[in-house]
Amino acid sequence: MNDNGKQLFFSLFLSLKSLDIEDEDYVITTPFTFTATAEVILHCNAKIVFADIDEKTYNISPEEIEKCIKKFGKKIKAIIPVHLYGQPCDMEKIVEICKKYEIKIVEDAAQAHGAEIKFRVQSSKFKVKKVGSIGDLGCFSFYPTKNLGCYGDGGLITTNDKNFYEKLLRLRNHGRVEHYLYKHIGFNARLDNLQAAILLVKIKYIDKWNEERQKIAKIYNKELTGVGDIITPYVKDNSSHVYHLYVIRTKYRDKLMEYLKNNSIGCAIQYAVPLNLQPAYKGKYEIVSELATVQKVANEVLSLPIYPGLKETQIEYVVSKIKQFFKKL
Ligand SMILES: Cc1ncc(COP(=O)(O)O)c(C=O)c1O
Question: How far is the CA of 321 from the centre of ligand 1 (A)?
Answer without folding.
Answer: 31
